[in-house]
Automatic annotation (TrEMBL):
GO terms for biological process: mitochondrial respiratory chain complex IV assembly. It is found in: Cytoplasm. Keywords: Cytoplasm, Disulfide bond. It holds the Pfam family CHCH. GO terms for cellular component: mitochondrial intermembrane space. Residues 1-20, 72-95 are annotated as: Disordered. The keyword Transmembrane helix does not apply. Residues 30-63 form the CHCH domain. This is Cytochrome c oxidase assembly protein COX19. It comes from Anabas testudineus (Climbing perch). Residues 1-11 have a biased composition (Polar residues). Residues 72-82 have a biased composition (Basic and acidic residues). It comes from the Eukaryota.
Amino acid sequence: MSTAMNFSTKAFQPRPPEKGSFPLDHFGECKAFKEKFMKCLRNNGFDNSMCRLQSKEYLECRMDHQLMSKEPLEKLGFKDLMDPPPSQAEENTKP
């Protein structure tokens, strides 16, 4: 005698995660940036705080090639690596 377990007839509808997963770079458009970032990590004992500039460049490449959704870099934690607006840059250089 076999028993069938019918919990629900509603089909599971998977959906992609909002963040944390993005398409593979099948054409290698950002491979150079990825390699530069990985080399930096290896050279710095995998301390990612030492490779923030390389990480920023890699993510910018991915956004430019539609391999991830566009996000403001400030929202990704790179506010301190952003260039100041031109008006502030001029004020900082005046004696």
